[in-house]
Amino acid sequence: MKYNHIETKVLHAGIEPDPSTGAIMTPIFQTSTYVQAAPGDHKGYEYARTQNPTRNALQQNLAALEQMKYGLCFSTGMGAVDACIKLLSPGDEVIATNDLYGGSYRIFTTVFAKMGIKFHFVDMSNPDNVSAAINSQTKMVWVETPTNPLLKIIDIESVAKIGHQAGAIVVVDNTFSSPYLQNPFKQGADIVMHSATKYINGHSDVVMGVLCVNDDDLHQRLAFLQNTCGATPGPMDCFLVLRGIKTLHIRMERHCQNGKKVAEYLAQHPKVGEVYWPGFENHPNHEVAKKQMRDFGGMISFTLKNDAIEPALTFLKSTKLFSLAESLGGVESLVGHPATMTHASIPKEQRIANGLKDSLIRLSVGIEHIDDLIADLDAALATA
Ligand code: P1T
Description:
This protein is of the alpha/beta class and 384 residues long. The protein folds into two domains: 240 residues, Type I PLP-dependent aspartate aminotransferase-like (Major domain) (Aspartate Aminotransferase, domain 2), CATH 3.40.640; 136 residues, Aspartate Aminotransferase, domain 1 (Alpha-Beta Complex), CATH 3.90.1150.10. It has 14 helices and twelve strands. The strands form two sheets. Strands 1-7-6-5-4-2-3 form a seven-stranded mixed beta sheet. The protein starts with 5 loop residues before the first helix and ends with a helix. Bound molecules: ligand P1T. Ligand P1T binds next to helix 3 and helix 4. The site of ligand P1T has 18 residues, from helix 3 and helix 4.
């Protein structure tokens, strides 16, 4: 049966009742290997780093959600980033967004730069900056949109065109949107990457990464890296993520509803300075967000008036429902301080030059009752 809606795909794509028992839920195939009748005579499964039925179901489900042919799962989001960059060779160059997850910046600048891959970080909210950085060595363009943590919006279609004209592979880290809000393949991305740790799993109990691709050759190369380098997830984690995905659409709707109300509440608060959220009409790329996203998500960053740092630190200690923790995209609300937590690996001068202030506070708005969330923020702002 053919179905096109993500609300149906989350439940059914890639999921078949177990042929041996009829179990409706994909079993956790907790095995490291598979018995062969004779050398090479097997049922499509040889060794669990290479293939696992629980992982296969998840990979197929994720590919369907991104409207692409193939999904590949990794033990962490960083494992997925690592595999992408390993497509490149010494001398190749990457143009990356200058506002991005600190861990991505760290692997680029500390691990791969010393292997001879050169990274240029540019503000991609203006695609002209990507054109200006392209040269004959450009082999990959690394987009994150909305960006972590400044919620900048990058026009995927424009940047993908520029990248493709140069013959580069265009990767979009879709973690902040989830496949529910945005499918970058539709705008031209070659690889769609996720930290499935976030909205895809949604319950803050698994760390996992995903790459989705459509091109057969690119899939072959990435599947080779997945198996050869070995950062694959275990079957229990795959089961948990499959389970989390079933409510992705419902969770995302509530994240977006609550996110809008929290952003509007912050924007009118006398102690709050800037609020970064792509749903505001005065967000510099609001129109691009409307074009490529279904809604604006549950991630919001803000500063206090005059970029006050001490009051921001007091605020970070004062919330009760918003727990102070790294990560995002789970059902429960989190608050973070990018400068000392998720983005501490970006040198301070670089961070400040990119607009990431020490006073910035990041919220991952959960799916609790909105009145309780606002009351928590209100009480914490009163102490700040
Ligand atoms: O944590 P891991 O599953 O390895 O994913 C890394 C990653 C990649 N891309 C983006 C956009 C991310 O936000 C992350 C992880 N981010 C956090 C832990 C954080 O709190 O921002």
